[in-house]
Specification:
With 354 residues, the protein is α/β, with parallel strands linked by helices. The protein has helices at residues 2-8, 39-47, 72-77, 99-107, 124-133, 171-184, 196-202, 216-223, 247-257, 284-295, 316-330, 342-352; strands at 25-30, 52-57, 82-85, 111-114, 137-139, 158-164, 189-192, 232-235, 261-266, 272-273, 276-280, 303-309, 334-335. InterPro entries: DgcN-like, DgcN-like_C, DgcN-like_N, P-loop_NTPase.
Length: 354
């Protein structure tokens, strides 16, 4: 029992500040073949590049984030202090084939940071390796204790929520881009992270998909408390309200965050749901209508501020044309928040409109 207690002290809450995490990182890609399941690695590369030393992939991996490839010992020599599991696979499990590589990281002197549902400390090889070597196993996907049940009562301040036609298509990137754009305009803004990558980037938040269902909307209320009338919380969305697997967390976020404005995130190159290919991606306008209908329960004034298009598969001229076409078709500004430009400025104008 004493040994178990010592090991449990190595686990840290997902609400912990990123300053308490051992940095910089080596990003572990495992044997991933689908880029959408490596969103943690991509998110850290794009939004915290100064914290990323390199990447470490297993044979058979078909995904790279474009960082120098190195083994854990090489990364430690370059100053890395932790290996971050950069994969967010369906179900959040740690594959048996990864364990030797994770043990190698411990032996190289690195702590391990994970945002998976599976807990590092529950894997015997990692638990005893960390104990033997004096390393930490840090699970980000750990919600705070004693979460409240939602009240549904309206709070002060303003809120924007990103929603999606599918999972892993840009809700986090959109929220971070909008929060940055609001701040650039002098608007009082906080980015509110609801997933493991956002928590690693911002230093705080609640991993919504790890919260017991009855308390999920309450967690969303706690994440975005009452604020000054001119203050905006930009809340990272999760899943999709029409995804057969992940709709529950999406609806809890919608009711609990009570957004004044929402932005629909969509990948026009995707026809089937990621990880659930038997289902087609729903039309943007269906998500708009459904979000308004359900969101009115806790905020009757909810409205759509526009569309965030993931145009990474298109060249610049194709992306511009798609944004123009969708703006005209939907009567709402459509933009790629990573490409930015006038279309994105119009989206920000619409979101901030009184």
């Amino acid at each position: 029992m004493a040994q178990e207690a010592r090991l449990q002290r190595g686990i840290e809450s997902g609400s912990a500040s990123s300053g308490r995490l051992p940095q910089p990182y080596l990003l572990f890609l495992g044997d991933t073949v689908e880029a959408g399941f490596a969103k943690t690695a991509f998110g850290l590369r794009d939004w915290a590049p100064d914290l990323c030393v390199g990447e470490f992939a297993l044979p058979g991996a078909q995904v790279t984030v474009g960082l120098p490839q190195m083994r854990p010992a090489d990364a430690a020599d370059k100053g890395a202090r932790a290996l971050v599991i950069g994969v967010a696979n369906s179900g959040g499990y740690i594959a048996e084939s990864w364990i030797p590589a994770l043990v190698e990281a411990l032996e190289a002197g690195l702590d391990i940071v994970s945002g998976m549902h599976a807990k590092l400390v529950c894997i015997p090889e990692l638990r005893y390796g960390a104990e033997r070597l004096g390393r930490r196993l840090i699970d980000i996907r750990t919600p705070p204790a004693n979460l409240p049940i939602a009240t549904g009562l309206k709070r002060t301040g303003k809120r924007l929520l990103t929603v999606g036609t599918d999972c892993a298509l840009g809700k986090k990137y959109t929220a971070l881009s909008i929060a940055r754009a609001f701040a650039d305009r002098g608007v009082k803004t906080d980015f509110r992270a609801t997933g493991q990558t956002g928590i690693m980037i911002s230093g705080g938040g609640i991993p919504m998909d790890a919260v017991v269902a009855d308390f999920a909307a309450g967690a969303a209320e706690l994440l975005s408390p009452g604020a000054a009338p001119d203050h905006w919380d930009v809340i990272e969305g999760q899943g999709s309200i029409l995804h057969p697997a992940y709709a529950g967390v999406s609806l809890a976020l919608l009711h609990g965050s009570q957004p004044d404005v929402f932005v629909v995130c969509h990948d026009p190159s995707r026809s089937c749901l990621l990880g659930d290919e038997e289902f087609a991606v729903p039309p943007v306008e269906e998500i708009i209508d459904l979000t308004i209908a359900l969101g009115r329960r806790t905020n009757p004034a909810i409205r759509c501020g526009g569309i965030s298009l993931n145009t990474s598969a298109l060249d610049a001229s194709e992306a511009d044309e798609l944004c123009r076409t969708e703006t005209a078709r939907l009567g709402l500004p459509a933009a790629d928040p990573i490409r930015r430009g006038p279309a994105f400025d119009a989206l920000i104008d619409e979101c901030l409109k009184a």
